[in-house]
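Give me C-alpha cells for this 112-residue protein.
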Amino acid sequence: MTIKTISGATQADADLCNVLDPPSKGCHAGGGIHVTIPPDWQARIAAGQDVPGCSYYRVAENGTIAIADQVPMQLAIPAVIAALTPPQQAEAATLTTKLSVAVVTAQMEVEP
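Here you go.
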C-alpha cells in the first residue's frame, strides 16, 4: 500500500476521500491501545469529530491529509465518478490534480 500526503488539504478533500474509501470501525493495525468505539461513530465522523479507534480521512492540523491507494483507484473508475454528485465530481477533479503532485510518505506491503 502506498500513502500519499497532500498539502493544502481541505475538508472537501477529506469528505470525498471518506465517500470513496468509507470510514471503518477499528484501525488497520495490530495490538496497542484499545478503545471503546461509540455506537454513533459514523455520525461523529460525518460531523467532523475525532473518533479514536476508527479509520477515516481528516485534515491534519498542519493542513495535510494522508491518502491510501483506495482513493486514487476509485478516482480512476469512470463509473464511480459518474455516480458522485456534481459538487463531488468537481472535487474529484481537484483531488486528482493534488494527488498527481502528492508526496509518497509511506509504502508497505499488505499481506492478503
